[in-house]
Amino acid sequence: ASFDTTALWYTAFFCIGIAGPGVFMGTLFLSEKYPQLRAVITSIAAAAWDSSALVFLLFQEIYFHMGISLEITCILWLVLCVVTGFGTWLVLPSWQEVQRLRTEPVCEPLDTAASSDNDHEVDA
């Protein structure tokens, strides 16, 4: 059975569009597992969110300029998303681990009493 190309285009774009927020919010939990990389993970997730429109450009290039059918393009995209999603799922912390990580301190507090005013002077 063959899909109508127009219906397949609308379905593909709709699915890509509604999947974005879930993927974005899901990747933010990685910062719970790796608190020392919190800024890096948040920055990468935000950059991926901002560049998500690139998928539509990629589909256009593959379909119109490379001549690959929409069905093959969608299947390849599905395989890529499943593999990437499974890889992300493997590194996501469990709910119990997230709760444990939230109770642990991220870094040691600074000991301000041990430092003296002379430590901050600049030698000329």
Q: What key attributes describe this structure?
A:
mainly alpha; 124 residues; single chain; 6 helices; 0% strand
Q: Could you walk me through the main structural features you see in this protein, from its secondary elements to its overall organization?
A:
This protein has helices at 5-27, 30-33, 38-50, 54-65, 70-91, 95-103. It is mostly helical. The mean pLDDT is 74.
Mean pLDDT: 74
Proportion in helices: 55-70%
Indicate the proportion of strand residues.
under 5%
Please provide the count of β strands. Answer: 0
Write down the secondary-structure element order.
Answer: HHHHHH
Total helical elements: 6
Shape: elongated
- Name the poorly predicted regions: none
Q: Which structural class matches the secondary elements? A: mainly alpha
Specify Rg, calculated over alpha carbons.
23 Å
Tell me the major beta sheet: none
> Span from first to last CA?
81 Å
- Oligomeric state, counting identical vs distinct chains: single chain
Summarize the structure.
Helices cover 67% and strands 0% of the residues. The chain has 124 residues and is mainly alpha-helical. α1 runs antiparallel to α3 (38-50) and α1 (5-27) packs parallel to α5 (70-91).
List the helices and strands and how they pair.
Elements: H1 5-27, H2 30-33, H3 38-50, H4 54-65, H5 70-91, H6 95-103
Helix pairs in contact: 1-3, 1-5
